[in-house]
Amino acid sequence: MAVQAIDLRVDDVSAATQMLSAAYGWRVLSDDPNFGELDAGGLRVMLSRDAMVPWGELNGLILHQYVDDVGVAVNRAVAAGAELLAGPLRTDWGTEAAYLRGPDQLIVDLCRDV
């Protein structure tokens, strides 16, 4: 068994779908004002304004995307509207990493093993 999808609450589904695709290269599977879905390299990232269950603001979630060149990936993400929070930097656990935010407080760690 494996986790194959994650659903995130965002205010503007279409804007978030387009930004995540442009910033991280995730393939758009659905782009509707109420529901977006992207393929993030085998993990489906679903975006919703409303859900069948009650939920609050996104908090405490970081998606880790492994890349070949952290600097190039950061430049792409920032150009697409992501906010660079930290990095690129070397971590104590053996990666080069950069942490970016956006949209709606979603944090993405662009990283590679070193």
Can you characterise this structure?
This protein has 114 residues and is an alpha/beta fold. It has a single domain (5-113), classed as Roll (2,3-Dihydroxybiphenyl 1,2-Dioxygenase, domain 1), CATH 3.10.180. Helix content is 19%, strand content 42%. It contains 2 helices and 8 strands, in the order E-H-E-E-E-E-H-E-E-E. The strands form 2 sheets. A 4-stranded mixed beta sheet has the order 1-4-3-2, covered by helices on one side. It is globular and about 40 Å long. The termini are far apart.
The CATH topology label is 2,3-Dihydroxybiphenyl 1,2-Dioxygenase, domain 1
Count of discrete structural domains: 1
Task: Identify the strand order in the major beta sheet.
Answer: 1-4-3-2
CATH architecture: Roll
Gap between N and C termini: 29 Å
